[in-house]
Design a protein that fits this description.
The structure is a single chain. This protein is an alpha/beta fold and 245 residues long. It has a single domain, classed as 3-Layer(aba) Sandwich (Rossmann fold). The protein contains eleven helices and six strands. A six-stranded parallel β-sheet has the order 2-1-3-4-5-6, with helices on both faces. Strand 1, helix 1 and strand 2 form a beta-alpha-beta unit. It is globular, with a radius of gyration of 17 Å. The termini are close together. Keywords: Hydrolase. GO terms for molecular function: hydrolase activity. InterPro entries: AB_hydrolase_1, AB_hydrolase_fold, Carboxylesterase_BioH. This is Alpha/beta hydrolase.
Length: 245
């Protein structure tokens, strides 16, 4: 890499999310990194999303930050191309496959019910119900909540179906997590009910030397709810010496 070239930061959004999730971080870090937000298109598996992302990164080495489903994609990138990965940040996310038995069936039924709502009543109507569990209670029906609904509405039911298929068939990433050899950030909103803090504490314990950051007064959408705190956590993580290629 040219000595004057800024390092590359790959930013991976979550389910039904896009560039809006990372807007504040991209702007704040623009002088420090070249950032790239991935659009998964019609990809319907975590592996396909990871391969699509890898195909769009021109730099031979890079750092990756993934939010929610994007964290699972980041872990798949770590499995597919560990030699390219300098740092990894896993935010409001998880590592486990779908549960076996009744718990897994309940998850599938819940996700399919949301998809049916999206097909019958539209993406915004689905988002009105689903996104209420994604933010701190004080942010319901605020301009921020409206921005989240607008982001969901930019996707289609077919994209929703593809991403749900990917999540239902998500791989077990616990082994990948344990094998990480680069600076690793685990970040979670204190009030994240979807990907709770206890899960991130477990992930943190599996990666020696990793950093755990708890974002106060935030639900699942931490990058949008508390952008300054998330940006500072990313800046501190980016300041850690990168693993050399």
């Amino acid at each position: 890499m040219n000595a004057f070239q800024k390092p590359t930061l790959l930013l991976l959004p979550g389910l039904l999310c896009d560039h809006a999730v990372w807007r504040e971080q991209q702007a704040a870090l623009a002088d420090e990194v070249d950032s790239l937000v991935i659009d998964y298109g019609q990809a319907d598996s975590i592996e396909a999303m990871a391969r699509l992302a890898l195909s769009q990164v021109r730099s031979p080495v890079f750092s990756v930050a993934g939010h929610s489903m994007g964290g699972r994609v980041a872990l798949e990138i770590a499995r597919l191309a560990p030699q390219r990965l300098q740092r990894i940040a896993l935010m409001d996310t998880g590592m486990d496959p779908i549960a076996e038995g009744a718990a897994g069936e309940r998850e599938i039924q819940g996700r399919m019910s949301l998809l049916n709502t999206a097909r019958e009543s539209g993406m915004r109507a689905m988002g009105q119900a689903w996104a209420r569990g994604m933010v701190h209670g004080e942010r319901l029906d605020t301009p921020l909540f409206e921005e989240i609904l607008a982001m969901i509405e930019r996707k289609t039911p077919d994209i929703f179906a593809a991403q749900l298929k990917a999540l239902i068939a998500r791989p077990d990433a616990r082994g990948v997590l344990a094998d990480l050899q680069c600076p690793t950030l685990l970040l979670c909103g204190r009030e994240d009910a979807w990907s709770p803090l206890a899960r991130h504490e477990d992930m943190h314990a599996r990666v020696p030397g990793s950093t755990l950051v708890v974002v106060e007064h935030s639900g699942h959408m931490s990058t949008m709810e508390q952008p300054a705190a998330v940006t500072q956590a990313l800046r501190d993580w980016l300041a850690q010496p990168a693993r050399l290629a």
